[in-house]
Amino acid sequence: MQYSYNYPRMLVTVDSLIFNKGVNDLYKLLLIKRGNPPFKGQYALPGGFPEMDELLANAAKRELMEETGLTGINLEPLSTFDAIGRDPRGRNISVAFYGFAVHNSKVTAGDDAAEAQWFPLNALPPLAFDHEQIIDFAVDKLGLK
Question: Comparing C-alpha atoms, which of 12, 17, 13 is closest to residue 140?
Fold first, then answer.
């Protein structure tokens, strides 16, 4: 039986923060350039919408693979982000995951990502959504400064 409710429902997305340790022990972060609105052409964390029958961690792994080609990354829950107005498409809650890739992991943009590339944590481009705040939270929590 399918239920119908008379009140609005929130959107749920997943985001992945994938780090690797580069030269001189400086960390890099994997970002994608968005190929679709909103924020088309801007950099963001890999992520997207889970399928209705998909666990959030599996959705994060799938989106990571579809947008960057990376597989085999152990993703751990980071936190939930629910700032009002964080997404122009509507009220959105994002569950963020993090993981570490091996140095020089090759990435290839796919699905709705126009590009995928590694950026030094101290030289990130302007970011879509509230991804700057999510990254700052992760860097502090994981001690990656």
Answer: 17
CA 63 to chain centre: 9
Active-site option among 66, 67, 115, 132: 115
Domain ranges within the chain, ordered by starting residue:
11-142
Q: Spelled out in words, what is the top-level CATH class assigned to the domain 11-142?
A: alpha beta
pLDDT in tens, 100-114: 998 778 999 998 889
**pTM exceeds 0.90:** yes
Give how far Cα 69 sits from Cα of 54, 65, 77, 110, 136, Å.
19, 4, 20, 7, 25
Active site residue 54: no
